[in-house]
Specification:
The complex is a heterodimer of chains A (114) and B (112). Chain A is built from no helices and 11 strands. Chain A has 114 residues and is mainly β. Chain A is globular. The relative contact order of chain A is 0.34. Classes of the chains: A mainly beta (114), B mainly beta (112).
């Protein structure tokens, strides 16, 4: 059984569109995260949610909005997509708290904006 | 913005060699340090979470140490095997968990 899953795996879309990436974890974790792997392959945290509450919100454009319908899901919605949004996006989860617990990563979603 | 550095950027070793690499992070407001192993075309997998100065952790042939006062952690691999080839990432957490930054990684290639 997949612990952290993301859909879709690949997403190709036009500039200006709005798209969502879904993430689900079946580990019973309380905290979920979204990361962006940038063009230099660095992994940068975007958001962290704990029990459906936002606890980390790094400086990302407000076109990016996380949505957590329940603690097993953290979806990433992106409005007005731009070329620079092309990247691999990873979802992750951990037991409660950001610091002391290892994170389990999803397989990633490769977003290509044309 | 936290500055987390890793060295070397990449490393090639022969099978059977032991190796180590470094993660440097700000020592002020330290909270925790994570190590992850990231194989190509896969997702990062956790190796260690370390919190206390002087911590040493071990998992099989891989071990790590932590010095929070001087702001560095070492990852050691004993008797490297080709399956150890991966990028090894550290992540520093500061300010009670509010700052979470991954380093750029060390890419290890183990040649048979």
């Amino acid at each position: 059984d997949t612990a952290v899953s993301q859909t879709p795996k690949y997403l190709v879309t036009q500039m200006g569109n709005d798209k969502s990436i879904k993430c689900e974890q079946n580990l019973g974790h309380d905290t979920m995260y979204w990361y962006k792997q940038d063009s230099k392959k660095f992994l940068k945290i975007m958001f962290s949610y704990n029990n459906k509450e936002l606890i980390i919100n790094e400086t990302v454009p407000n076109r990016f909005s996380p949505k957590s319908p329940d603690k097993a899901h953290l979806n990433l919605h992106i409005n007005s997509l731009e070329l620079g949004d092309s990247a691999v996006y990873f979802c992750a989860s951990s037991r409660a708290g950001t610091s002391y617990n290892e994170q389990f990563f999803g397989p990633g979603t490769r977003l290509t904006v044309l | 913005i936290l500055n987390v550095e890793q060295s070397p950027q990449s490393l090639h070793v022969q099978e059977g060699d032991s190796t180590n690499f470094t993660c440097s992070f700000p020592s002020s407001n330290f909270y925790a340090l994570h190590w992850y192993r990231w194989e190509t075309a896969k997702s990062p997998e956790a190796l260690f979470v370390m919190t206390l100065n002087g911590d040493e952790k071990k998992k099989g042939r891989i071990s790590a140490t932590l010095n929070t006062k001087e702001g560095y952690s070492y990852l050691y691999i004993k008797g490297s095997q080709p399956e150890d080839s991966a990028t090894y990432l550290c992540a520093s957490i500061q300010d009670y968990g509010q700052n979470f930054v991954f380093g750029p990684g060390t890419r290890l290639s183990v040649l048979p």
